[in-house]
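#random but structural
TW: two for the price of one
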Amino acid sequence: MNVSQVKGFLQTQELWNDTFNGIPQFKFPELNLIDFRLQPIPENIRLGHQIEYIFQQLIAHSTSYKTLLFNQPIRNEKITTGEIDFILQNTKNQEIIHVELTYKFYIIDTNISDEIHQLVGPNRKDAFYEKVQKIKHKQFALLKTKEAIQFLESKHINVHNIISKACFKAQLFKPYFEDAILTTLNENCIVGSWLSLNEFKLSLFNENLYYLLKKQEWIIVPTFDVEWKIYQSIIGDIYKAHERKQAPMLWMKDKNNKLHKIFIVR
């Protein structure tokens, strides 16, 4: 992980303001990164866990909060029943906040009428609606269990004063040839587009240049400083990704030297 990933995290907006479906949003505090130094983060863990370490280091750098717990498993004897992402304390009013961190990449499927169901993973393996239910009924509910209450009290944390919130950041991708209108969610989370492989075979894409991102790079804001590939070269990489049942993310530099972030879905 490097500073470009940290900046990508900070530039990604929260998916809603205030409260959505009974889930309050944790607004990430404003930070000055001038003297911030990113400490090493394990490379052999998935992107979601790497982002948890980014969040933890940024909060430690903040003057607004201090971390009381981070990635704390809750166990019933030897069985882990769940994990608390963060317990933070507001340094100004001493408020204690339980924060569940989520960072997602969703395509917007405009063939689905209900907005909450339109957001699905680029590989169709997860969905926004399912994640919201998990936060509300599993992750938030964990703090009400006997095991969690006993553990928090052993750390001198009053569970009855804790407010649960989600820090839910997301990058959204609209259909390439359509507009997408969000009425309840944050439209500023739309940072790119998605299209099918058949659509990508249209001639209008032939003259552009492309960069295939590794999963750890998905969070980064596009930059010109990469090794670009021509269309005839990148199409083979897309086929290989689809054979692995993966939807690749690309940066595309068009003939006007404009950068785009796109998913090519199966």
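TW: number two ↓
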Amino acid sequence: MTAANRLTLVRLGLVPLFAILVLLPWGPGRYLAAALFLLAAATDGLDGYLARSRDEVTRLGQLLDPLVDKLLITTALILLVQLHLVPAWVVILIVGREFLISGLRQVAAGEGLILAASSWGKVKTLTQVIAIVALLVEVPQAVLLLYVALVLTMVSALHYLLSNRDLLYRPG
């Protein structure tokens, strides 16, 4: 197994630990959760770098990496709804975008194409990570950062759809 895939599996293992820390009833839990979330988010870039720089891109990595990323972000957002720190409708839109773009990627894969992450997608993810950490550590007005992330999430979705509209209109 490659180092990049091992790192992705470590990130997967951090998700339940992160969730436990968020839900702990004592104060430092959320700060530890925020630190763990940042660590997990940082490994996302690192595993991609390792896979490409070592020419060790695998099908397992191509499958697991985006799934684990979505699981980490979605888990955090759902927990923030449970803690009444963010409105559910915001999370529904963000998670809905992920389903939409994953579906678009499946359509592309059926055509033998791979849709690489766009710069909008990377900015969207970075903004989501910053907003989630700010919400976890209760930065005043952190929910505004989440609204910025929501706007970038929708812009990213629109960008993917417009850039790949030819895929959507091909006969099936």
